[in-house]
Specification:
The chain is elongated. The longest helix has 15 residues, at 5-19. With 200 residues, it is an alpha+beta fold. The strands form two sheets. Strands 1-2 form a two-stranded antiparallel sheet. Strand 3 (135-140) and strand 4 form a beta hairpin. It is built from nine helices and four strands; from the N terminus they run αααββααααββαα. It folds into two domains: 5-77, Arc Repressor Mutant, subunit A (Orthogonal Bundle), CATH 1.10.10; 93-175, Arc Repressor Mutant, subunit A. Helix 1 crosses helix 3.
Amino acid sequence: MALPAERLKTLIEAALFVAGRPLNISELKNSVLADYPVTTRYVQLLLAELKQDYSERGVELKEVASGWRFQARQDYAEELSRLWSERAPRYSRAVMETLTLIAYRQPITRAEIEAIRGVAVSSQIVNTLKDRGWVRSIGHKEVVGRPELLATTRAFLDYFNLQSLEQLPELDPELQPSLATMVDEGSEPDVGDKNADRVS
């Protein structure tokens, strides 16, 4: 059964609003569009049109690692934050530096992070990032002690509005020299779990 393009577009719009999470094209085709003969390319075109429809609105259609979602524009973040009595958790500099190094040098061990930062990285810092869903263990480095290798997740990309790691901004200059040295001196680590789904 065929539907007019405008009807299909509004159906996709409704699905993205009620899903409560990003939906990729495959999920859309296998759910709300399952009864309609649409190609992946056609759904991409409808999403592009829908994104344009919202280009001048307070809400935007954004593609992230897990798919497409509606979200408030960043321009209004400060004003919109007043809607919630509980403030979003604020993370320490140590937590954010650790996350930064994992994102830019993954997969990486805790010892390698400590070598760059020059201070110990506590288990609490790593567990905070894991509990938040931004970091996961993807295996072990084949050296003495077989330390775990840390990498970011799709949830990390989604939270920071990224489709892939290639969209990461330039690294903090304070961390750049140490990181560059490590990249030059270090070899590519062996990942124990070859099937781990590290995002890229």
